[in-house]
Amino acid sequence: MPVSFKSLPALRAAAVVLVNVALAAGLLVLAELVLHRVYDWKNPFLDNGETRLRVRHPVFTHTLRAKFDGYDKWGPANSRVFTNSLGFKDASTRDAPLVADRRRVLFIGDSFTEGVGVAYEKSFVGRFAQAFPELDVLNAGVSTYAPSAYFAKLKYYLDAGLKFDEAIVYIDISDIQDEAIVYRRDLSGILQLGVFAVDPVACLPQPAQLVAPPARGWLEEHSFVAEFLSKALYARRVEAADARASLDDFMRSGRVYSRDWGRGSWTYDAQAECFGPRGVAGAIEKAKAEMDRIHELLASKGVALSVGVYPWPQQMLYDLEDSRQAQIWRDWCAGKCRRFFDHFPAFFRYERAHPDFIRELFIWADNHFNEHGHGVLAEDLIAKYRD
Fold first, then answer.
1. Of 247, 297, 319, 326, whose CA is between 20 and 30 Å from 214?
2. Domain 54-207+251-386, CATH among 3.20.70.20, 3.30.470.20, 3.40.50.1110, 3.40.630.30
3. What is the mean pLDDT of each run of 10 residues along the chain (387 residues)?
4. Pairing state between β 166-170 and 104-108
5. What's the Cα-to-Cα distance from 293 to each of 87, 149, 154, rounded to whole Å?
6. Where are the domains of the chain?
């Protein structure tokens, strides 16, 4: 059948579309081939252990990039982040000299002290700094740190000439398991970060999600773009399901607020699994030994040491106010610490007055404090520090 002149423009348009689609597909395939070769099959669009903010460090395993001004995503939150010249979270990208012109207090801890998911000024360290403008406050906390990393980082900066008058170490509930199976030193004494367990996936599981992850198909296995889009869409579905969920949904076995999630259950379950060959008791002793090293290091430099503790949702749901966590570090601090900040009573007082305390204090579907939770801790810390 002959083609009429009237149909020629439509055919030309269709040909242009097809050519452009083919060209785009060819460029995408070429880009995928180049990216796979350059990045050795590690998707550059996903977090492979290092981001614009979070970088590796040869001495204390990982840290934050110095003079960073940008955003850090934590779950649904996407908070603005600044780090100073030392690579510590701060109110701005200020130059933090090794020697300050006023009294200096340094905080160190893990993700709770870093203040993931909230802006610095809303974190308990940021609020402390605002309450005491006469102090130069540094926040050396970073996600996944534990006493071994606290020691390595403090020693590194003290050896570099950093001067501070007091170090306040906030020991997290997860520090005990991290000391047992996440941190170890190699034969040269260099700190190593990993999952040193027979079954790493089983020993550090992510809490079970309300929405099952999709099966990974051929396209996701071979295309960085497809893998990224698949994970992004799944994250959206998880966030939507979490927003609709009740506390009972998250208290079911294996989920983020369940009694049996081992990473947070050791304070009331001495038989919690995945705490190394010596169990929970051995993990506690290792953490205390690392804290002994910190005390000796700081004492040799004339730096005062203070220690703080706070609960996770598991402690507020299933544990006592005088938790094993508080007992251990209260006893350890005797004769070593300038101050011991036990924030369990403040949080349990809040619980007794607020039935919906989990949603009010913690990032929903997460065990970290939200802005209000940081405020409760900060108010208690500031009052105790002034006493």
1. 247
2. 3.40.50.1110
3. 57 72 67 56 55 94 97 85 98 98 98 97 98 98 98 98 98 97 96 91 80 76 71 80 92 94 92 93 98 98 98 98 98 98 98 98 96 98 96
4. parallel
5. 24, 11, 11
6. 7-38, 54-207+251-386
